Amino acid sequence: METAKTTVEKATPRFHYGYVVLTMIVTAVFGSLGLGRFGYTSILPAMQDGLKLTNTQTGELQSWNLVGYLLTVVFAGLIAARWGPRVVIAVALLVAGLAMLATGLFPFFDAARLGRFFTGVGNAGANVPAMALVSAWFGAKRRGVAAGIAVAGSSVGLMVTGPLVPSILNQFGAEGWRVSWYVLGSMTLSVGVLCWMLIRNRPDELGLTPVGDVPMTGGVRPSEKKASSLDWGLIYKSRKLWHLAAIYFAFGFAYIIYSTFFVRYLVKEAGFSAGDAGALWLQIGIVTTISGFIWGSISDRWGRRIALIGVFALQGISFLVFGMSHELPSIYFSAVLFALTAWSVPALMAAFAGDLFGARLAPAALGLLTIVFGTGQAIGPYLAGAIADNTQSFAFAFVTAGVVSLLGAVGSMMLRTVRS
Questions:
Q1: Whose CA is closest to 130, among 170, 163, 91?
Q2: How much of the chain exceeds pLDDT 70, in percent?
Q3: I need a surface site. Which of 102, 240, 258, 281 has the fewest CB within 10 A?
Q4: Which residues of 283-308 are buried (b: 16+ CB within 10 A; e: fewer)?
Q5: Of 385, 354, 412, whose CA–CA distance to 109 is shortest?
Q6: Helix, strand, coil: what percent of the chain each, to 5?
Q7: Cα–Cα distance between 35 and 30 in angstroms, integer?
Q8: pLDDT confidence of residue 264
Q9: What is the average per-residue pLDDT within 344-368?
């Protein structure tokens, strides 16, 4: 009896190590996306002035970052499935941090593109395996909420860069944008060290079962049985997965336009100071911390499809309003809608991947989804910059993003007709 009791206590500890892993997932997302991708949003206006960039070139820099992300994302999932997420995440954050330092050092546009490209490589190498860890450490009934918490790392990035970058710019003047990259790159390197120290690939490494899951039977969880290492065809032949990928493309194309040029639009077109724009970016970051949790909870209770419809509809309205009015109430209304939905779709897609394919194949499935998503991301900023150079405003680019988001809502409505 004593032995049995000890075994149960070991399998269901009062504090599950899964919550440590979840904290590190949040931290990895903070370093890879919060700093590596969204840090550019705050730095962009000063960097544009410092390097004398056109709007198209500012969009191209973000597109290069996202091309690097796109080219790496599938390999990140496959390598993580083979070597384990812990190693891949730590190395990827090292790459991203060094590339961000280099971006600050480069004196001209062509070299800056290289820095943004390799930052994107590191972003994908850290973010995809980190999000896939949710499926390994959390059972199906907890997965949506856990994934929603995980994507809050991007929110922390907004909360940090919103006030930090304007402060650096004020202190260092014309060279402040370079110093900003040095600071953010150093922070990313530190995140990589933490992830190496604390992440564990699977609960069974510590003799645990996933949070909220049933104990293992015969050493294999039920969710694992349908997706062994020989079942790669389950991923590429799934009609539902390809439908989800198309919807994910719409999200990538639309949200990246808004999030990349938000601060630039406020400073250059809406009459905001850098500090005021950064303060609003910070406020958005604070609210976005609950966006993934809200929609992850909705998806766990009422289904992933309902959650996707709601997110796309609200974001579509947000982007349309932002592009159609410079009035302060419209700007804040748009910001609130975006903040409440910002990181929910990646969380929902991570949960979908785990639902469909189990923990072992979830990194590869999420990798395929993210390839299509990344294509939308890579196209969005370049097209938005070109539109702005031709129309002398980013307004029409935001309207375009709004229309694409509403198409994503329509596609989400049709999910019920698609079967794996």
A1: 91
A2: 89
A3: 240
A4: bbbebbbbbbbbbbebbbeeebbbbb
A5: 385
A6: 85, 0, 15
A7: 6
A8: 92
A9: 74
Phi-psi region of 392 (alpha: psi -120 to 50; beta: other; left: phi over 0): left
347 within 8 A of 296, measured Cβ to Cβ: yes
Residue 1: is its pLDDT beyond 50?
Answer: no
Decide: 35 and 99 in contact? Cβ < 8 Å. Answer: no
Question: Among all chains, which residue has been given the structure tokens 């194949």?
Answer: 361
CA–CA distance from 122 to each of 22, 69, 249, 253 (Å)? 20, 7, 21, 20
Architecture of the domain delimited by 10-204+234-417 = Up-down Bundle (1.20)
For the chain, the straight-line distance linking the first and the last C-alpha, in angstroms and rounded, comes to: 46
CA 359 to chain centre: 19
Please tell me which residue, 196 or 357, carries the higher pLDDT value.
196
Exposed e or buried b per residue across 356-370, where buried means at least 16 C-beta atoms within 10 angstroms of its C-beta:
bbbbbbbbbbbbbbb
Q: What tokens were used for 70?
A: 């796109």
**Does residue 13 have a pLDDT over 60?**
no
Phi, psi at 289, each rounded to 5°: -60, -25
C-alpha–C-alpha distance, residues 300 and 269, integer Å = 41
Residues 6+ apart with CB under 8 A from 233: none
Cα-flanking dihedrals φ and ψ of residue 308, to 5°?
Answer: -65, -45
Mean pLDDT value across residues 255-282: 92
pLDDT (tens digit per residue) in 372-414: 888 998 899 999 999 999 999 999 999 999 999 999 999 999 8
Question: Residue 360: its pLDDT value, please?
Answer: 67
Q: pLDDT tier at 359 (50, 70, 90 boundaries)?
A: low
* Residue 275 main-chain phi, psi, to 5 deg: -65, -40
The neighbour count for residue 236, using CB atoms within 10 Å, is 11
pLDDT exceeds 60 at position 312: yes
Residues 6 or more apart whose CB falls under 8 angstroms from that of 75 comprise 367
Q: Quick check: 117 pLDDT over 70?
A: yes
- pTM attached to this predicted model: 0.77
Can you spell out the DSSP letters for 94-109?
A: HHHHHHHHHHHH--SH
Query: What per-residue confidence (pLDDT) applies to 11?
Result: 46
Distance CA 115, CA 33 (A): 15
User: Both tokens of residue 27?
Assistant: 């931290």
